[in-house]
Amino acid sequence: MNPRSAGDIRIMRAYAIWTVVWGVVGMLVGIVIAAQLATPALNFANTPLGPYLTYGRLRPLHTNALIYGFGAGSFFCMQFYMVRRLCKVNLLSAGLARFQLWLWNITVVLAALSLLLGMNTSKEYHELEWPIDVLIVVIWVCFAINVIGTIYLRKEREMYTSLWYMIGALIGVAILFLGNGAVVPVSLFKSYPIYAGVNDANVQWWWGHNAVAFFFTFTPTAMIYYLLPKTTQAPIYSHRLSMFGFWGLMFFYLWTGAHHLILTPVPEWLQTVAIAFSLVLIAPSWATVFNTYMTMGGHWEKMRDNYLVKFIVTGVTFYGLQVIQGPLQAPRVFSQLIHYTDYVPGHVHMGTMGFYAMIIFAALYYVVPRLWQTELHSVALANTHFWLALVGQLTYNITMWIAGIQQGAMLKSMEPDGTLTYTFVETVTRIVPYWQMRTAGGVIFFVGVLIFTYNIAMTIRGSGKEIAAEEAYA
Amino acid sequence: MYRNPTLFLIMAVVVFAIGSIVSTALPFFLESTVTPMPSAKPYTALQIEGRDIYIREGCNNCHTQTIRPLYSEVLRYGPYSRGGEFEYDRPHLWGSRRTGPDLARLGGRYPDEWHYRHMVDPQAIVPGSTMPPYPWLEKRPLDTSHTHRKLEILGYPITDAGLAEAAGKTELDAMVAYLQSLGTAVPRTPAAIPTPRANLVNPYAGDPAILAEGEALFMEHCAGCHGVELRGEAGTGITMTELVDHGPGDEADIVADAWEGVEGMMPAFGPLLGEDRLWKIANYITSR
Q1: Domain co-membership, B251 together with B167
Q2: Average of pLDDT values for B29-39?
Q3: Which of A38, A400, B18, B128 is deepest in the core (most CB within 10 A)?
């Protein structure tokens, strides 16, 4: 068979494996930090490991491992896979993809070490200091050249919906990352942003919210538009709706960053614009959801029989809920209650665990057997994983929403004589049991992830070593 | 467009740029977002090193530094945050989560000794706190090899006195200096007692039933500084923390003093605890 195809397949296999590895690492750190909140002794602060394992250092490790490890890995794997299938050509350069793989893995390790050592910019999801930012830029440029280059070489003239979302993600992340990464270095390990105060906060959340858009919405949406027709054998309900969805997201998202800054000193009009556009964003987001449900139209029995459809449709459902819950947090009347409380991580994790992870699981369950020309080791275990993921995620998030509203209400509570009812620490004491329940939810989800990892590993182990002609473009 | 990747890419960038420019580039041209308050001051050498330690330890993952214009919030933390206070902050440290309280007006709320003890053992000062201790800050000498360059990059004044202040210090010294600078651009509004001192009447005089509650409240909110034996032995080194000499009849003074707080020494407990709880605590103190 064509050695170029074999090269492509080998590189996609490597990305699939490393995605799973970084996913497990990142989620494990998540469980540790959840436990640390309720049990401060788990910071091990009074031991020699003290400085390196405090919550303040581990939390960015959790977020960055999952964004730049698990998240980036799944883009690389799936975008390479989908671009080949949708363009009916081999990758522009498997060699470039392999260089990118090495550089990416080295960068993830360096990133983890740097965060443990306290080299961090404080900017959320952009905590990595400037030398690592440079590596990430190189990686991303290699990736963009390869994907967009492959699209230019395509044999299928019309670009399918998934490709639009992939292109959007590529340029969106690039511009955002560079914008919020503009710094003046003090040393190899420390820098200051070129921005200050109010504007620095505004740039940070232009990055922060739109990183969620392009990293965590555009790419899984590309996967949904690919996987749904493939797994249901049904065409997507409405092409026009997918166009509205894409351009709507592309336009409206960029105005919403300041919804993270409600009632802070950023200009009032900016906050109001962000709130309004956040609500408007429900429409293009629901284009994907509506398209999914209508595509499922006469095929709902597949939810029962097909584990892939379970993951995809459940993921899309939580996406639909996510993009309603989020905008409803923006108006000042609700923001003033829940901002800065656990409600916010509760929202974040419905997105990451309920939507994003479910789509990535579906994608890997789909792609791994195909890349290794074999069957999934155990459908029963995949179903078990599904239920653990669902129960774990719901336990985690519902607990956090309740905790957030409770703490917010306690902090606002006032006595008839105009004094506060609760001190801050009194609210913390009440929240601790919720933190424990949330840790339990995370553990349940993680057990599901371990079962998933086992299933994938056994699938790979049970396959032949040969790459057969089917996956190739001769 | 869907058959022309070049056109598609250009359109995508243009659409992306519209919202970005209006929401994120435009504000730079508004005076309100770039003008410092006259009372805001650039950080000193010691303070900026402390700030960078705050960033290093990831303190912003649990603490915010922006007070919203909400009644309960202003009562709890002090005057709400103004944009002009933050113009020397690179990066901003507003945070996004309050696992611990907001710190925007922490400067001058507690004496230095409170911070020295709290950073090393939070639970000893604040019972129920879930904050981890930071004992290594006390032991590590402050690294000032980049201080001059930092001040240059940030455009802050570089003075010999400022640099000398940062020499020979520990990381904890720097952290405390930074924490004591927070929010000092806007003066605190004093907490006025609703009833004048002379007219305060002890509602629980001669009522032993509330002493158990008074004791519990004292242990939770006061013993961190004033000591469980009321002799100030919490190790904070804070002066005037001995309370054991107060006897019956002093309750009104205790309530009034606790209500107003002492600038730079003790927070104003009136808004935080209210009159009823302060009376119970005062009666407990005088019963000892």
Answers
A1: no
A2: 95
A3: A400
Would the CA dihedral through A232, A234, A238, A242 be positive or negative?
Answer: positive
Once rounded to an integer, what is the mean pLDDT over residues B87-104? 97
Cis, bond preceding B91 (omega within 30 deg of 0): yes
Give the H or E element holding residue A226.
Answer: helix A219-232
d(CA A439, CA A37): 9
Question: Do residue B5 and residue A270 have CB atoms under 8 angstroms apart?
Answer: no
CATH-assigned architecture of domain A1-22+51-194: Up-down Bundle (1.20)
Arithmetic mean of pLDDT, B179-206:
88
For B276, the closest chain A residue by CA position comes to: A417
Domain presence at residue B78:
yes
What residue numbers bound the domain in which B110 lies?
45-179
Averaged confidence pLDDT in chain B = 92
| pLDDT over 60 (residue B261) | yes
Mean pLDDT score, A333-359: 97
**What does the block give as tokens for B239?**
């002066």
- Does position A400 have pLDDT exceeding 50, yes or no? yes
pLDDT of residue B227: 83
Which of A120, A124, A186 minimises the CB distance to B153? A186
Chain A residue closest in CA terms to B137: A51
- Residue of B15, B23, B126, B275 to mutate, testing the A interface (most A Cβ within 10 Å of its Cβ): B23
Interface touch A199/B28, C-beta < 8 Å = yes
CB contact under 8 A, B132 and A260: no
Q: H/E/C letters for each residue in B219-261?
A: HHHCHHHHCCCCCCCCCCCCCCCCCCCCCCCCHHHHHHHHHHC
Q: How far is Cα of residue A331 from the mean position of the Cα atoms in its chain?
A: 25
Of A36, A38, A251, Cβ closest to residue B18: A251
pLDDT tens profile A15-24: 999 999 999 9
pLDDT score for A474: 38
Q: What's the structural domain count of chain B?
A: 2
Position B124 scores a pLDDT of 87
Query: In whole angstroms, how far apart are CA A75 and each of A169, A363, A405?
Result: 10, 10, 35
Q: Name the residue in chain B with its Cα closest to that of A342.
A: B97
Distance, CA of A337 to CA of A325 (rounded, Å): 14
Residues B172 and B52 in one domain: yes
pLDDT tier at B190, thresholds 50, 70, 90: confident
Nearest to A186 among B9, B149, B271 (CB): B149
B59 vs A46: CB contact, 8 Å cut-off?
no
CATH label of the domain that carries residue B230 = 1.10.760.10
Where do the domains of chain A lie? 1-22+51-194
A210 token code pair: 């739109």
A-proximal residues of B, 108-167, CB under 8 Å: 122-123, 126-136, 146, 149-150, 153-154
Q: pLDDT tens for residues B55-86? A: 999 999 999 999 999 999 999 999 999 999 99
Q: CB distance from B57 to chain A under 8 Å?
A: yes
Q: Give me the phi and psi of A414, to 5 degrees please.
A: -130, 150
